[in-house]
Amino acid sequence: MKKIFSLLFMLVVSITALFAVTPDSDEEAIKKVIDEAYIDGLQNGGDLKVTEAGFHPGFNLLIFRNNMLEFLPIYNWIQMAGMRRKSQPEQDKEKISCVYRNIDVTGNAAVAKIELYRSDKLIFTDYLSLYKFEEGWRIVSKIYYRHP
User: How far is residue 140's CA from residue 11's CA, in Å, rounded to a whole number?
Assistant: First the structure.
């Protein structure tokens, strides 16, 4: 009887510990994919292969312009970033920094609200949607506000 009680106790403690760690580790994994794929990769001239890995192939950037909605798929955005880097080296360009305002995780879905700064000036507020796939968190869509 003591063995059964001990096993049940250990099982409950293990499950409790697992669920207690998950939100923090998910938030850290989400920040990592955003930092590496989006901030470093697309915004600051980093490795576009890392960017491809962090964004789902079905990703769309939703652009609100002239009361219309436009879509920019990730493969076009990566291609544009690559062409821009060839024509305009980013060596002297001020790096973008990111402040995380909120990360909300429910199961395998998450939304991150981030602010992007250049030279301490707020330039964008982004809302990134992510799903957790077998290979990890990936960014699946983005809407934004460009600050004047």
Answer: 35
Amino acid at residue number 39: I
Bridge partners of 104, per DSSP, are 111
Domains and CATH numbers, the chain: 23-146 (3.10.450.50)
- Give the neighbor-by-neighbor strand order of the sheet with 68-73: 68-73, 55-65, 136-146, 121-133, 109-118, 96-106
Segment 89-122, tens digit of pLDDT: 666 678 999 999 999 999 999 999 999 999 999 9
Measure the CA–CA gap between 55 and 140, rounded to whole angstroms. Answer: 6
Instruction: Classify 35 as helix, strand or coil.
Output: helix
3-state class (DSSP) for residue 96 = strand
Angle at 19 between CA 13 and CA 20, to 5 degrees: 85
